[in-house]
Specification:
Helices cover about 25% and strands about 20% of the residues. The strands form five sheets. Strands 13-14-10-12-11-16 form a six-stranded mixed β-sheet, covered by helices on one side. The chain is globular, with a radius of gyration of 19 Å. By secondary structure, it is an alpha+beta fold. It has seven helices and 16 strands. The longest helix has 19 residues, at about 35-55. Bound molecules: adenosine-5'-triphosphate (ATP) and manganese (II) ion (2 copies). Adenosine-5'-triphosphate (ATP) binds near residues 59 and 240.
Length: about 300
């Protein structure tokens, strides 16, 4: 991985037309990753990241003083953001409404960096058609103590089962402990139907392999198993965006990978602010056909997972 640049504590820099103050402020103390380094990181991955983070309502994790200090989720504007972070009004529905943030370009990301955004969480639908998801996420959450081997096996199992039903999926290392198995969709069915499908699929997995899977989020019931978190697939729910930094030890980032790579990967947090830019340069987009995958949840799929 390329060495991180050094910035002066109070140095002001400009990226994509956005002014960033205190570029040398350390955000990941363990790795000495500064605000300027975060700007460099996002510049390096933006071409691959923007198609996934752009034009979706956001939930931001801000840590203005860096990781390990006070961090908070922020969905609504309370002031101070550059206008490169746009606003959209979401009208009443089940759960979420009000004024939401979205970005559609690198200046938007940089405006977030300036405000101490360390994690970018996205809705599964886009601003143009908020009520219809254009992606499903199966968030695999292993019980503590389960090795990554089990997560890998489960991911491949979900891939195969979803492929059998008719859905092509793409794996993403969360940057934390698990994998997100993601199915792009043509925005066609609305949130309630998408959730019904995902829940039924997770419940079915738990019934068929109770030794491996549980569809209930209670940690007490997880015991040596993987929680298939289908709850990301609700109106207003979010999941970590591809290529987002995580405010966790090691300055990890969420990382799209190929299914082949997943077989060789040793953990969900192997990619970080320091090594991801090199990977992007050398490997490029591990999901080249993601955007052209045209699929939707059909009646036959609903039936296959025994959703009513
Ligand atoms: P890991 O692999 O370690 O589980 P993760 O990103 O999948 O990492 P989860 O706790 O499983 O973490 O959460 C999944 C997603 O749910 C997150 O990426 C986030 O978008 C959303 N989420 C979780 N907790 C909250 C919260 N308190 N507020 C808002 N969104 C949340
Ligand atoms: Mn998870
Ligand atoms: Mn989860």
């Amino acid at each position: 991985s390329a060495p991180l640049k050094t910035y002066g504590e109070n140095e002001g820099i400009e990226r994509a037309g956005i002014k960033l103050s205190s570029a040398g402020k350390v955000l990941f103390p363990g790795q000495g990753v500064s605000k300027g380094n975060l700007a460099d990181y996002y510049e390096a991955v933006s071409e691959l990241m923007l198609p996934h983070v752009g034009v979706r309502p956001l939930s931001l994790v801000r840590c203005p003083q860096g990781r390990g200090k006070h961090c908070f989720f922020q969905k609504h504007d309370t002031g101070g953001f550059n206008e490169a972070i746009h606003h959209m009004e979401i009208v009443e529905g089940t759960g979420a409404s009000g004024d939401y943030f979205y970005v559609d370009d690198l200046p938007g990301i940089m405006a977030g960096v300036q405000m101490g955004v360390m994690e970018w969480h996205v809705w599964g639908s886009r601003t143009a058609d908020i009520e219809k998801p254009d992606r499903l996420v199966f968030d695999l959450d292993p019980d503590e103590g389960l090795g990554f081997e089990a997560v890998r096996t489960a991911s491949v199992d979900l891939r195969d089962r979803l492929a059998e039903i008719g859905l092509k999926t793409y794996p993403m290392l969360s940057g934390g402990k698990g994998v997100h198995v993601i199915a792009p969709l043509v925005p066609k069915v609305a949130w309630p139907e998408a959730k019904t499908f995902c829940k039924a699929f997770a419940v079915l997995l738990g019934e068929e392999r109770p030794d491996r899977y549980v569809a209930n989020m209670s940690k007490a019931r997880r015991k040596g198993r993987i929680f298939v978190d289908y709850l990301r697939n609700e109106r207003g729910s979010t999941a970590i965006a591809p290529y987002s930094t995580r405010s966790r030890e090691g300055a990890p980032v969420s990382a799209p990978v190929t299914w082949e790579e997943l077989e060789r990967v040793e953990g969900a947090n192997i990619f970080n602010v320091a090594n991801m830019p090199t990977r992007v340069k050398e490997v490029g987009d591990p999901w080249p056909d993601y955007a052209s995958t045209e699929q939707s949840i059909t009646k036959a799929m609903m039936k296959a997972v025994k959703a009513e």
